[in-house]
Amino acid sequence: MRSNYQVQATVGLSVLSQDQREELHLAAIHCLENTGCKVDEPEALELLREAGVHEVSPGHVLIPGSLVEEALRRAPPAVTLHTRLGDPTVRLEGHRVYFGTGSDCPYILDPDTGERRRFTWDDVGAAMRLCDALENMDFVMSLGLVSDAPPAVSDRRQFEAMLLNTVKPIVFTAHDRAGMRDIMAMAAAARGGPEVLEREPSICLYAEPSTPLQHTRTAVEKLLEAADHRLPVIYTPCPIAGATAPASPAGCLVVGIAENLSGLVMHQLKRPGAPFIFGGVISIMDMRTSILSYGAPELSLFSAALTDMAHYYRLPMFSTAGCSDSKLVDEQAAIEATMSVLMAALSGANLIHDTGFLEAAICGSMEMVVLSDEVIAAAKRILGGVPMGEDDLALDVIKEVGPGGDFLAHEHTRRHFRRNFRPRLIDRRNYEAWAKRGEGRMSDRLNARVKEILAEHRPEPVSAEAKREIETILGRAGKAAGSQGVGGG
Protein backbone atom coordinates (compact mmCIF):
# COMPACT_ATOMS: atom_id res chain seq x y z
CA MET A 1 0.00 0.00 0.00
CA ARG A 2 1.47 3.31 -1.08
CA SER A 3 0.46 6.77 0.04
CA ASN A 4 1.19 9.40 -2.59
CA TYR A 5 -0.31 12.30 -0.71
CA GLN A 6 1.51 14.97 1.20
CA VAL A 7 0.76 15.13 4.89
CA GLN A 8 -0.23 18.79 4.56
CA ALA A 9 -4.02 18.61 4.42
CA THR A 10 -5.84 20.52 1.68
CA VAL A 11 -9.29 19.73 3.07
CA GLY A 12 -10.39 19.64 6.67
CA LEU A 13 -12.80 20.68 9.36
CA SER A 14 -13.03 22.90 12.41
CA VAL A 15 -15.45 22.36 15.27
CA LEU A 16 -14.83 25.70 16.96
CA SER A 17 -15.38 29.14 15.49
CA GLN A 18 -12.78 31.84 16.07
CA ASP A 19 -15.03 33.41 18.70
CA GLN A 20 -15.35 30.07 20.50
CA ARG A 21 -11.57 29.60 20.49
CA GLU A 22 -11.10 33.02 22.04
CA GLU A 23 -13.80 32.30 24.62
CA LEU A 24 -12.16 29.01 25.63
CA HIS A 25 -8.78 30.71 25.87
CA LEU A 26 -10.17 33.44 28.13
CA ALA A 27 -11.95 30.82 30.25
CA ALA A 28 -8.68 28.88 30.68
CA ILE A 29 -6.87 32.08 31.68
CA HIS A 30 -9.64 32.86 34.17
CA CYS A 31 -9.25 29.34 35.60
CA LEU A 32 -5.48 29.76 36.03
CA GLU A 33 -5.80 33.24 37.56
CA ASN A 34 -8.63 32.42 39.96
CA THR A 35 -8.52 28.66 40.66
CA GLY A 36 -4.87 28.05 39.85
CA CYS A 37 -3.07 24.74 40.02
CA LYS A 38 -0.94 22.64 42.33
CA VAL A 39 2.77 22.30 41.55
CA ASP A 40 4.75 19.76 43.56
CA GLU A 41 8.21 20.29 42.05
CA PRO A 42 10.61 22.67 43.90
CA GLU A 43 12.52 24.03 40.89
CA ALA A 44 9.33 24.83 38.99
CA LEU A 45 7.86 26.53 42.04
CA GLU A 46 10.96 28.70 42.38
CA LEU A 47 10.76 29.64 38.69
CA LEU A 48 7.12 30.59 39.12
CA ARG A 49 7.82 32.62 42.28
CA GLU A 50 10.61 34.51 40.52
CA ALA A 51 8.17 35.24 37.69
CA GLY A 52 5.75 36.80 40.19
CA VAL A 53 2.95 34.27 40.59
CA HIS A 54 0.76 34.44 43.68
CA GLU A 55 1.09 31.39 45.94
CA VAL A 56 -2.18 30.82 47.77
CA SER A 57 -0.70 28.06 49.91
CA PRO A 58 2.46 25.95 49.57
CA GLY A 59 2.49 24.69 45.99
CA HIS A 60 -0.90 26.17 45.08
CA VAL A 61 -0.24 28.94 42.57
CA LEU A 62 -2.35 31.40 40.60
CA ILE A 63 -0.82 32.04 37.19
CA PRO A 64 -1.46 35.41 35.55
CA GLY A 65 -2.49 35.58 31.92
CA SER A 66 0.55 37.71 31.12
CA LEU A 67 2.83 34.74 31.89
CA VAL A 68 0.76 32.52 29.61
CA GLU A 69 0.94 35.05 26.77
CA GLU A 70 4.70 35.37 27.17
CA ALA A 71 5.13 31.58 27.11
CA LEU A 72 3.02 31.35 23.95
CA ARG A 73 5.20 33.98 22.28
CA ARG A 74 8.35 32.08 23.16
CA ALA A 75 7.29 28.55 22.19
CA PRO A 76 8.21 27.51 18.63
CA PRO A 77 5.29 26.94 16.22
CA ALA A 78 6.99 23.94 14.57
CA VAL A 79 8.87 20.87 15.77
CA THR A 80 10.80 18.49 13.51
CA LEU A 81 11.50 14.88 14.46
CA HIS A 82 14.19 12.85 12.73
CA THR A 83 14.72 9.16 12.19
CA ARG A 84 17.50 7.27 13.92
CA LEU A 85 19.40 7.69 10.64
CA GLY A 86 19.03 11.48 10.76
CA ASP A 87 16.29 12.01 8.16
CA PRO A 88 13.82 14.81 9.05
CA THR A 89 10.59 12.92 8.38
CA VAL A 90 8.04 14.41 10.80
CA ARG A 91 7.44 18.18 10.59
CA LEU A 92 4.86 19.15 13.20
CA GLU A 93 3.23 22.41 12.17
CA GLY A 94 0.05 23.77 10.64
CA HIS A 95 -2.22 21.00 9.37
CA ARG A 96 0.46 18.40 8.64
CA VAL A 97 -0.71 15.01 9.93
CA TYR A 98 1.35 12.05 11.12
CA PHE A 99 0.20 8.82 12.75
CA GLY A 100 1.75 6.34 15.16
CA THR A 101 1.02 3.78 17.84
CA GLY A 102 0.14 4.34 21.47
CA SER A 103 2.16 3.39 24.52
CA ASP A 104 2.19 1.26 27.64
CA CYS A 105 -0.64 -1.27 27.28
CA PRO A 106 -0.23 -4.03 29.89
CA TYR A 107 -1.77 -6.68 27.61
CA ILE A 108 -1.35 -7.85 24.02
CA LEU A 109 -3.52 -9.95 21.74
CA ASP A 110 -1.00 -12.58 20.70
CA PRO A 111 -1.02 -12.74 16.87
CA ASP A 112 -0.15 -16.47 16.93
CA THR A 113 -2.64 -17.72 19.52
CA GLY A 114 -5.19 -14.92 19.87
CA GLU A 115 -4.54 -15.09 23.62
CA ARG A 116 -4.76 -11.93 25.74
CA ARG A 117 -1.58 -11.98 27.80
CA ARG A 118 1.08 -9.70 29.28
CA PHE A 119 3.31 -7.68 26.95
CA THR A 120 6.98 -8.70 26.89
CA TRP A 121 10.25 -7.22 25.64
CA ASP A 122 10.02 -9.37 22.51
CA ASP A 123 6.46 -8.19 21.87
CA VAL A 124 7.49 -4.52 21.97
CA GLY A 125 10.33 -5.29 19.56
CA ALA A 126 7.97 -7.13 17.22
CA ALA A 127 5.46 -4.26 17.28
CA MET A 128 8.24 -1.83 16.40
CA ARG A 129 9.43 -3.98 13.48
CA LEU A 130 5.85 -4.05 12.25
CA CYS A 131 5.59 -0.26 12.43
CA ASP A 132 8.99 0.14 10.80
CA ALA A 133 7.57 -1.65 7.74
CA LEU A 134 4.14 0.02 7.65
CA GLU A 135 4.11 3.02 5.36
CA ASN A 136 1.56 5.07 7.28
CA MET A 137 3.08 4.65 10.72
CA ASP A 138 5.16 7.83 10.78
CA PHE A 139 6.40 7.55 14.37
CA VAL A 140 6.21 4.96 17.13
CA MET A 141 5.28 4.56 20.74
CA SER A 142 5.93 1.25 22.47
CA LEU A 143 2.34 -0.12 22.23
CA GLY A 144 3.04 -2.19 25.35
CA LEU A 145 4.70 -2.29 28.75
CA VAL A 146 7.68 -4.60 29.20
CA SER A 147 6.51 -7.00 31.90
CA ASP A 148 9.56 -9.29 31.85
CA ALA A 149 12.07 -6.69 33.04
CA PRO A 150 12.68 -5.52 36.61
CA PRO A 151 10.17 -2.72 37.26
CA ALA A 152 12.87 -0.21 38.25
CA VAL A 153 14.47 -0.36 34.80
CA SER A 154 11.55 -1.48 32.64
CA ASP A 155 11.32 1.98 31.02
CA ARG A 156 14.93 1.67 29.78
CA ARG A 157 14.33 -1.87 28.51
CA GLN A 158 11.17 -0.74 26.80
CA PHE A 159 13.08 2.01 25.01
CA GLU A 160 15.84 -0.43 24.10
CA ALA A 161 13.30 -2.69 22.38
CA MET A 162 12.04 0.31 20.41
CA LEU A 163 15.45 1.69 19.48
CA LEU A 164 16.77 -1.64 18.18
CA ASN A 165 13.71 -2.43 16.08
CA THR A 166 12.84 0.74 14.18
CA VAL A 167 14.52 3.76 12.64
CA LYS A 168 11.36 5.88 12.93
CA PRO A 169 11.02 8.76 15.41
CA ILE A 170 10.23 7.50 18.91
CA VAL A 171 7.87 8.98 21.48
CA PHE A 172 8.87 7.49 24.83
CA THR A 173 7.76 7.38 28.43
CA ALA A 174 10.06 7.28 31.46
CA HIS A 175 9.51 6.42 35.10
CA ASP A 176 11.39 9.46 36.36
CA ARG A 177 14.20 11.90 35.61
CA ALA A 178 16.89 9.23 36.05
CA GLY A 179 15.16 6.93 33.57
CA MET A 180 14.74 9.80 31.15
CA ARG A 181 18.44 10.64 31.33
CA ASP A 182 19.40 7.04 30.59
CA ILE A 183 16.99 6.95 27.66
CA MET A 184 18.41 10.16 26.24
CA ALA A 185 21.91 8.70 26.60
CA MET A 186 20.86 5.57 24.71
CA ALA A 187 19.32 7.64 21.93
CA ALA A 188 22.43 9.82 21.78
CA ALA A 189 24.62 6.73 21.44
CA ALA A 190 22.59 5.65 18.42
CA ARG A 191 22.71 9.13 16.87
CA GLY A 192 26.38 9.94 17.35
CA GLY A 193 26.32 12.03 20.51
CA PRO A 194 24.10 14.35 22.60
CA GLU A 195 24.86 17.37 20.41
CA VAL A 196 23.43 15.60 17.38
CA LEU A 197 20.38 14.48 19.36
CA GLU A 198 19.68 18.03 20.56
CA ARG A 199 20.17 19.51 17.09
CA GLU A 200 18.20 16.81 15.25
CA PRO A 201 15.94 15.09 17.81
CA SER A 202 14.80 11.58 16.96
CA ILE A 203 12.97 11.09 20.26
CA CYS A 204 10.20 12.97 22.03
CA LEU A 205 9.12 12.73 25.66
CA TYR A 206 5.54 11.97 26.68
CA ALA A 207 4.60 13.28 30.15
CA GLU A 208 1.30 14.11 31.86
CA PRO A 209 -0.11 16.48 34.46
CA SER A 210 -2.62 14.93 36.85
CA THR A 211 -6.14 16.13 36.18
CA PRO A 212 -7.62 18.22 37.62
CA LEU A 213 -4.98 20.97 37.68
CA GLN A 214 -2.11 19.16 39.41
CA HIS A 215 1.51 18.94 38.31
CA THR A 216 3.32 16.15 40.16
CA ARG A 217 6.96 16.30 41.04
CA THR A 218 7.89 13.43 38.71
CA ALA A 219 5.99 14.87 35.74
CA VAL A 220 7.45 18.35 36.13
CA GLU A 221 10.99 17.07 36.67
CA LYS A 222 10.75 15.35 33.29
CA LEU A 223 9.17 18.44 31.73
CA LEU A 224 12.03 20.65 32.93
CA GLU A 225 14.65 18.09 31.93
CA ALA A 226 13.25 18.09 28.42
CA ALA A 227 13.32 21.89 28.31
CA ASP A 228 16.91 21.96 29.55
CA HIS A 229 18.05 19.71 26.69
CA ARG A 230 15.70 21.19 24.07
CA LEU A 231 14.14 17.77 23.72
CA PRO A 232 10.61 17.94 22.27
CA VAL A 233 8.02 17.20 24.95
CA ILE A 234 4.35 16.31 24.80
CA TYR A 235 2.80 17.43 28.08
CA THR A 236 -0.66 16.04 27.64
CA PRO A 237 -3.56 16.21 30.09
CA CYS A 238 -6.15 13.43 30.17
CA PRO A 239 -9.36 14.94 31.57
CA ILE A 240 -12.29 12.54 31.86
CA ALA A 241 -15.58 14.36 31.36
CA GLY A 242 -17.82 13.62 34.33
CA ALA A 243 -15.01 12.23 36.48
CA THR A 244 -11.85 14.34 36.67
CA ALA A 245 -13.32 17.25 34.69
CA PRO A 246 -16.77 18.80 34.18
CA ALA A 247 -19.22 16.67 32.22
CA SER A 248 -19.92 19.53 29.81
CA PRO A 249 -17.64 19.50 26.73
CA ALA A 250 -16.64 23.16 27.14
CA GLY A 251 -15.85 22.74 30.84
CA CYS A 252 -13.78 19.62 30.17
CA LEU A 253 -11.85 21.50 27.48
CA VAL A 254 -11.19 24.42 29.82
CA VAL A 255 -9.50 22.11 32.32
CA GLY A 256 -7.37 20.47 29.62
CA ILE A 257 -6.35 23.79 28.09
CA ALA A 258 -5.47 25.26 31.51
CA GLU A 259 -3.28 22.24 32.29
CA ASN A 260 -1.52 22.56 28.94
CA LEU A 261 -0.91 26.28 29.36
CA SER A 262 0.35 26.04 32.95
CA GLY A 263 2.76 23.30 31.87
CA LEU A 264 3.91 25.49 28.99
CA VAL A 265 4.58 28.39 31.38
CA MET A 266 6.90 26.29 33.56
CA HIS A 267 8.56 24.79 30.48
CA GLN A 268 9.30 28.17 28.90
CA LEU A 269 10.47 29.70 32.17
CA LYS A 270 13.06 26.92 32.33
CA ARG A 271 14.31 27.45 28.77
CA PRO A 272 12.62 29.94 26.47
CA GLY A 273 12.12 28.61 22.96
CA ALA A 274 12.36 24.94 23.87
CA PRO A 275 10.01 22.76 21.77
CA PHE A 276 6.62 22.03 23.35
CA ILE A 277 3.75 20.00 21.87
CA PHE A 278 0.20 20.88 22.92
CA GLY A 279 -2.51 18.24 23.16
CA GLY A 280 -4.46 15.84 25.30
CA VAL A 281 -6.45 12.64 25.51
CA ILE A 282 -9.89 14.01 26.39
CA SER A 283 -12.93 11.78 26.48
CA ILE A 284 -15.90 10.83 28.61
CA MET A 285 -16.46 8.43 31.46
CA ASP A 286 -19.02 5.88 30.36
CA MET A 287 -21.37 6.03 33.34
CA ARG A 288 -22.57 2.45 32.81
CA THR A 289 -19.08 0.91 32.88
CA SER A 290 -16.92 3.68 34.48
CA ILE A 291 -14.28 3.38 31.73
CA LEU A 292 -12.50 6.24 29.98
CA SER A 293 -13.90 5.54 26.53
CA TYR A 294 -11.40 5.38 23.66
CA GLY A 295 -14.11 4.64 21.10
CA ALA A 296 -16.58 7.37 22.00
CA PRO A 297 -17.42 9.95 19.33
CA GLU A 298 -16.81 12.52 22.06
CA LEU A 299 -13.11 11.62 22.08
CA SER A 300 -12.89 12.56 18.40
CA LEU A 301 -15.00 15.69 18.91
CA PHE A 302 -13.03 16.91 21.94
CA SER A 303 -9.73 16.11 20.19
CA ALA A 304 -10.78 18.13 17.14
CA ALA A 305 -11.75 21.04 19.40
CA LEU A 306 -8.40 20.85 21.17
CA THR A 307 -6.71 20.79 17.75
CA ASP A 308 -8.54 24.02 16.90
CA MET A 309 -7.04 25.49 20.07
CA ALA A 310 -3.55 24.30 19.11
CA HIS A 311 -3.94 26.05 15.76
CA TYR A 312 -5.18 29.16 17.61
CA TYR A 313 -2.03 29.08 19.75
CA ARG A 314 0.24 28.17 16.80
CA LEU A 315 1.56 25.13 18.65
CA PRO A 316 1.99 21.55 17.35
CA MET A 317 -0.86 19.25 18.35
CA PHE A 318 -0.76 15.74 19.85
CA SER A 319 -4.00 13.84 19.25
CA THR A 320 -5.59 10.39 19.41
CA ALA A 321 -7.00 7.95 16.82
CA GLY A 322 -7.02 4.36 15.61
CA CYS A 323 -8.26 2.98 18.93
CA SER A 324 -11.34 1.22 20.26
CA ASP A 325 -13.13 -0.02 23.35
CA SER A 326 -13.64 -3.41 21.68
CA LYS A 327 -11.89 -6.47 23.12
CA LEU A 328 -11.18 -7.89 19.65
CA VAL A 329 -10.22 -6.60 16.21
CA ASP A 330 -13.79 -6.85 15.03
CA GLU A 331 -16.50 -4.73 13.43
CA GLN A 332 -16.70 -2.44 16.47
CA ALA A 333 -12.96 -1.88 16.37
CA ALA A 334 -13.10 -1.02 12.67
CA ILE A 335 -15.96 1.43 13.15
CA GLU A 336 -14.30 3.26 16.05
CA ALA A 337 -10.84 3.30 14.50
CA THR A 338 -12.11 4.62 11.17
CA MET A 339 -14.18 7.36 12.77
CA SER A 340 -11.31 8.59 14.94
CA VAL A 341 -8.66 8.40 12.20
CA LEU A 342 -10.75 10.41 9.76
CA MET A 343 -11.73 13.01 12.37
CA ALA A 344 -8.12 13.45 13.54
CA ALA A 345 -6.86 13.74 9.98
CA LEU A 346 -9.52 16.24 8.92
CA SER A 347 -8.96 18.33 12.06
CA GLY A 348 -5.32 18.82 11.07
CA ALA A 349 -3.81 17.39 14.25
CA ASN A 350 -0.09 16.82 13.86
CA LEU A 351 1.15 13.91 15.97
CA ILE A 352 -1.72 11.41 16.19
CA HIS A 353 -1.13 8.46 18.50
CA ASP A 354 -2.83 5.37 19.96
CA THR A 355 -3.32 3.34 16.79
CA GLY A 356 -3.48 -0.28 17.91
CA PHE A 357 -5.31 0.27 21.20
CA LEU A 358 -8.18 -1.98 22.25
CA GLU A 359 -10.13 -2.33 25.47
CA ALA A 360 -9.92 1.38 26.39
CA ALA A 361 -6.09 1.42 26.22
CA ILE A 362 -5.60 -1.77 28.24
CA CYS A 363 -4.70 -4.08 25.35
CA GLY A 364 -2.55 -3.57 22.26
CA SER A 365 -2.99 -5.42 18.98
CA MET A 366 -0.66 -5.59 16.01
CA GLU A 367 -3.62 -6.49 13.79
CA MET A 368 -5.29 -3.28 14.96
CA VAL A 369 -2.17 -1.35 13.96
CA VAL A 370 -2.34 -2.86 10.46
CA LEU A 371 -6.06 -2.10 10.24
CA SER A 372 -5.37 1.52 11.21
CA ASP A 373 -2.56 1.74 8.65
CA GLU A 374 -5.06 0.86 5.92
CA VAL A 375 -7.60 3.38 7.21
CA ILE A 376 -4.94 6.10 7.45
CA ALA A 377 -3.96 5.57 3.81
CA ALA A 378 -7.58 6.12 2.80
CA ALA A 379 -7.84 9.19 5.04
CA LYS A 380 -4.73 10.68 3.47
CA ARG A 381 -6.38 10.31 0.06
CA ILE A 382 -9.30 12.37 1.31
CA LEU A 383 -6.90 14.98 2.70
CA GLY A 384 -5.42 15.30 -0.78
CA GLY A 385 -8.64 16.95 -1.91
CA VAL A 386 -9.50 17.69 -5.54
CA PRO A 387 -6.59 19.27 -7.47
CA MET A 388 -7.78 21.82 -10.02
CA GLY A 389 -4.84 22.30 -12.38
CA GLU A 390 -5.17 22.39 -16.15
CA ASP A 391 -4.20 18.72 -16.48
CA ASP A 392 -6.64 17.83 -13.71
CA LEU A 393 -9.58 19.52 -15.42
CA ALA A 394 -8.65 17.52 -18.56
CA LEU A 395 -10.71 19.57 -21.03
CA ASP A 396 -8.47 18.62 -23.96
CA VAL A 397 -8.67 14.95 -23.02
CA ILE A 398 -12.46 15.06 -22.79
CA LYS A 399 -12.60 16.72 -26.23
CA GLU A 400 -10.18 14.17 -27.69
CA VAL A 401 -12.17 11.17 -26.46
CA GLY A 402 -15.51 12.79 -27.26
CA PRO A 403 -19.08 11.65 -26.59
CA GLY A 404 -19.46 7.89 -26.31
CA GLY A 405 -15.73 7.17 -26.02
CA ASP A 406 -13.76 5.71 -23.12
CA PHE A 407 -10.71 6.83 -21.22
CA LEU A 408 -9.32 3.43 -20.23
CA ALA A 409 -6.39 3.35 -22.63
CA HIS A 410 -5.68 7.07 -22.62
CA GLU A 411 -2.27 8.26 -21.44
CA HIS A 412 -3.98 10.74 -19.11
CA THR A 413 -5.53 7.81 -17.24
CA ARG A 414 -2.14 6.17 -16.83
CA ARG A 415 -0.76 9.36 -15.27
CA HIS A 416 -3.64 9.90 -12.87
CA PHE A 417 -5.01 6.57 -11.68
CA ARG A 418 -2.00 5.87 -9.48
CA ARG A 419 -2.99 8.82 -7.31
CA ASN A 420 -6.06 6.93 -6.15
CA PHE A 421 -6.10 5.03 -2.89
CA ARG A 422 -4.85 1.51 -3.59
CA PRO A 423 -5.86 -0.82 -0.77
CA ARG A 424 -3.72 -3.70 0.33
CA LEU A 425 -6.25 -5.46 2.54
CA ILE A 426 -9.65 -4.01 1.63
CA ASP A 427 -11.12 -6.46 -0.91
CA ARG A 428 -12.68 -5.15 -4.14
CA ARG A 429 -12.83 -8.38 -6.17
CA ASN A 430 -16.05 -9.95 -7.36
CA TYR A 431 -17.49 -12.85 -5.44
CA GLU A 432 -16.04 -15.59 -7.66
CA ALA A 433 -12.49 -14.23 -7.43
CA TRP A 434 -12.80 -13.69 -3.68
CA ALA A 435 -14.12 -17.22 -3.13
CA LYS A 436 -11.40 -18.75 -5.31
CA ARG A 437 -8.62 -17.08 -3.30
CA GLY A 438 -10.17 -18.26 -0.04
CA GLU A 439 -8.79 -15.38 2.05
CA GLY A 440 -11.88 -15.11 4.22
CA ARG A 441 -12.56 -12.25 6.59
CA MET A 442 -10.64 -9.03 7.03
CA SER A 443 -9.43 -10.29 10.43
CA ASP A 444 -7.72 -13.20 8.66
CA ARG A 445 -5.99 -10.87 6.22
CA LEU A 446 -4.84 -8.60 9.06
CA ASN A 447 -3.30 -11.52 10.92
CA ALA A 448 -1.60 -12.81 7.78
CA ARG A 449 -0.13 -9.36 7.08
CA VAL A 450 1.26 -9.11 10.62
CA LYS A 451 2.94 -12.50 10.31
CA GLU A 452 4.28 -11.70 6.84
CA ILE A 453 5.97 -8.50 8.02
CA LEU A 454 7.41 -10.07 11.19
CA ALA A 455 8.84 -12.94 9.15
CA GLU A 456 10.40 -10.77 6.48
CA HIS A 457 11.18 -7.26 7.71
CA ARG A 458 14.40 -6.29 9.45
CA PRO A 459 15.08 -2.63 10.26
CA GLU A 460 18.42 -0.90 9.80
CA PRO A 461 20.47 -2.00 12.83
CA VAL A 462 22.22 0.32 15.25
CA SER A 463 26.00 0.21 15.04
CA ALA A 464 27.95 -2.29 17.11
CA GLU A 465 29.58 0.58 18.97
CA ALA A 466 26.22 2.14 19.80
CA LYS A 467 24.84 -1.19 20.95
CA ARG A 468 27.78 -1.66 23.33
CA GLU A 469 27.16 1.80 24.77
CA ILE A 470 23.45 1.03 25.18
CA GLU A 471 24.29 -2.21 27.02
CA THR A 472 26.66 -0.26 29.30
CA ILE A 473 23.93 2.24 30.15
CA LEU A 474 21.44 -0.54 30.85
CA GLY A 475 23.91 -2.45 33.01
CA ARG A 476 24.70 0.66 35.02
CA ALA A 477 21.00 1.39 35.52
CA GLY A 478 20.36 -2.17 36.62
CA LYS A 479 23.11 -2.03 39.22
CA ALA A 480 21.89 1.33 40.49
CA ALA A 481 18.45 -0.18 40.95
CA GLY A 482 19.86 -3.16 42.85
CA SER A 483 19.18 -5.47 39.92
CA GLN A 484 20.97 -6.87 36.90
CA GLY A 485 18.15 -5.46 34.77
CA VAL A 486 17.99 -8.26 32.20
CA GLY A 487 15.00 -7.81 29.93
CA GLY A 488 15.23 -9.61 26.65
CA GLY A 489 18.17 -8.67 24.49
Describe the protein's architecture and organization:
The protein has 489 residues and is an alpha/beta fold. The protein folds into 2 domains: 1-385 and 423-489, Alpha-Beta Barrel (TIM Barrel), CATH 3.20.20.480; 390-419, no CATH class. It has 18 helices and 19 strands. Strands 6-17-16-14-12-10-9 form a 7-stranded parallel β-sheet. Helix 5 packs parallel to helix 6 (177-191) and helix 10 runs parallel beside helix 11. It is globular and about 80 Å long. Mean pLDDT is 94; it is low at 1-6 and 483-489.
At a glance:
The chain is of the alpha/beta class and 489 residues long. 45% of the residues lie in helices and 13% in strands.
Structural class: alpha/beta
Quick one: CATH superfamily of the largest domain?
A: Trimethylamine methyltransferase-like
Q: Tell me the strand percentage band.
A: 5-15%
Number of domains: 2
Query: Tell me about the biggest sheet?
Result: 7 strands, parallel
Shape: globular
How large, in whole angstroms, is the Cα Rg? 23 Å
Q: List unreliable stretches of 5+ residues.
A: 1-6, 483-489
**CATH fold category name of the largest domain:** TIM Barrel
Question: What's the oligomerization state?
Answer: single chain
- Quantity of strands, as a count: 19
| Overall helicity | 40-55%
Distance between the termini: 32 Å
Mean pLDDT: 94
Spatially, the strands of the biggest sheet line up as: 6-17-16-14-12-10-9
The CATH C-level name of the largest domain is Alpha Beta
CATH architecture of the largest domain: Alpha-Beta Barrel
Number of helices: 18
